Amino acid sequence: MINLSFLLNDSKFVGKPVMIMGLARSGIAALRALQLQDIEIFVFDDDPNTRKAAEELGAIWVDNIEDFDFSALAFLLLAPGVPLYAPKPHRICELANKVNCPIISDIELFGLAKKNNSIIVGITGTNGKSTTTALCEHVLRELGKDAICCGNIGVPVLAVNDNQNTIYILEISSFQLDLCPSFRPDISVVLNITPDHLDRHGSIQRYIEAKATMFDGCNTAIIVSNDKYSKKLLKLVVAQNTILTTQKELPIPTEGLPQLAGSHNAQNITAVYHICKTIIPDMKDSDFRAALENFTGLPHRQEIITSNQQLLFINDSKATNADASAVALDTYKNIYWIAGGIAKAPEEFDKLINKYKANIKHAFLIGAAAKDLEYYLKKHKVGFTQCEILENATIKAVKTAKQDGLDGATILFSPACASFDQFQNFEKRGDAFRDIVKKLTQRISA
Q1: Which of 27, 129, 275, 336 would you label with 187, given CA atoms 20 to 30 Å apart?
Q2: Which pTM does this prediction carry?
Q3: Domain 303-445 is in which class?
Q4: CA geometry: angle at 168 spanning 136 and 263, to 5°?
């Protein structure tokens, strides 16, 4: 657990209580770390069912935030899922801002606490953050370094071991960066920027500015995309060393890596290569390539569930927008595509389907966005079947693919939509697909 004893010696914090808003994984980790410093901790959550867990850890539950004195706090630690300013600030943010109470994230607190010989790597971007973060941890460990991934992936940052010489690799969202006024990693990485979460940021410019904060004054900035929004971010970057590169400049081959297939993963590999080369200047390219070869990939991100002579099953449930599905549709051919859920931007289906229609043999539609998808599939003359639910879609996709008898056919579950119409989250959705495929393939092989 990260040592937060600096709070007891800093005049901005000493003797003052703190409040935590939001008691999911990161909030509980923050509560545990703060509680060790004998700091008075207030907590609030829109879900009253979290009260018991908070009080068992010694926190004081706030029943009515309207009557609370936010001016007395050292800071309000806000969960990243709580709206800070758009589409409408949560009431707790309005009350804190009214009295100039600092609003920060657990990552900001982590950055303030880290003063030893550790290295902090921050990875952000619209798509690919989790795979890149996990791959970076894997490669560095294979190369003999003490590395751990945390933040949005793995353990919350305040729950990791507080060791000297550790390399902390943080997956960081724009929501968290909005709450990091001073956090600056030693190595800051942006993979790509496409319009996303604009309901929370209000505009693409504010989204870019949120991403840009962690580059302001960092030691090394790594930018691995030449998309137009990354170019705008580049103008805001102030770093001691800036590496601007693309996968075309990568000095190692990326073929023959099934768990890292596709141009998007070439981009992820490029980012990891430059991170590792910055940390280990004498790294051998052959050692880096060898480390890639035994990476097993992450669940729900173009996860290869199973394959046989006729069909390849891919679980890409993490693809919650059109841009994320684009990379999967670009990676495979003869695709029997299962898609649908809650569309973030239905108009994005138009460009997506038009660009990859040659790869899509048939689409199988589920969830709230099924009619929107149908409209654009009809427009671009791509065959489809309305299936309502995931199990029906998977069964029909397998049946259709077997009837067509194509070599190298892929059953691709890449929804291009959020999951919340039918599933609790994308993980539950992906688990459901994996279970359905397992039952189907057992039946096929029986």
Answers
A1: 27
A2: 0.86
A3: alpha beta
A4: 25
